[in-house]
Write a structure and sequence with these properties.
The chain is of the alpha/beta class. The protein has helices at about 45-50, 75-85, 100-110, 115-130, 145-155, 175-190, 200-210, and strands spanning about 1-15, 15-30, 35-40, 60-65, 65-70, 85-90, 160-165, 195-200, 210-215, 220-225.
């Protein structure tokens, strides 16, 4: 489903260069839940952004479902980001002036949903993440765990095949973090959703993922099958 082939990402920093990724090769199967771990600056988020089409590699190839992302035009890349991958982040990134339903509905609007079908789909997604009764609440009226569930509903709005999660439990306590990852695990099992998740939490990675990949200094240092 996702593949990196000898991928490097090099940034110009002042008068020198920094290799955020150094010849990384990685393959993730459909329906797999993979955790990505490593210290700050190890390249985890950079790799996630490449798979999400938010950035492009300096060298190497990023693949989705057997096809390279490199030849995609700006319009095709935007369609890929909108329809094929969903992304969630540590800080939720919800629009504070909108209700939970409106936040999800906005993503559906970008995906071409209209009118009653858009409203129905937004409510259906919020019910699925356990927030059916909180649909009319704004982010400030929701707990951190509830805000992250809204972000998940929004990410799933256009039925992506892959969910990319960058420290999704970083702002949650251990109980809420476990509840959130139980929800993601259920989606992997029920929908064949493929998830790549950056996390600093060893216990959560071992408990919920199929495989944990460890990164260091822009390279893959090791892998561990879980459970």
């Amino acid at each position: 489903m996702l593949e990196a082939r000898e991928v490097s990402k090099i940034y110009q920093m002042g008068g020198g260069v920094v290799a955020a990724l150094d010849r990384v090769s990685l393959s993730i199967k459909e329906g797999e839940f993979v955790a990505l771990q490593g210290t700050s600056g190890s390249g985890k988020s950079t790799l996630l952004n490449l798979f999400g089409g938010l950035d492009s590699p300096t060298h190497g190839d990023v693949m989705f479902d057997g096809r390279s992302l490199a030849p995609l035009s700006k319009k095709e890349m935007a369609r890929y980001r909108r329809a094929s991958v969903g992304m969630i982040f540590q800080n939720f990134n919800l629009i504070q002036t909108m209700t939970a339903e409106e936040n999800v509905s906005l993503a559906l609007a970008f995906g071409g949903w209209r009118g009653r079908e858009r409203t129905r789909r937004a409510r259906e997604l919020l019910m699925r993440v356990g927030l059916g009764e909180r649909a009319m609440h704004r982010p400030a009226e929701l707990s951190g765990g509830e805000q992250q569930r809204v972000a998940i509903a929004r990410a799933l709005a256009n039925r992506p095949r892959v969910l990319l999660a960058d420290e999704p439990t970083g702002n949650l306590d251990s109980t809420r973090a476990g509840e959130l990852l139980s929800l993601l695990r259920e989606m992997v099992t029920r929908d064949d959703l493929t998830i790549l998740m950056v996390t600093h939490d060893d216990q959560l990675a071992a408990r919920f993922s199929d495989r944990t990949i460890h990164m260091k200094d822009g390279r893959i240092e090791g892998m561990r099958d879980e459970g």
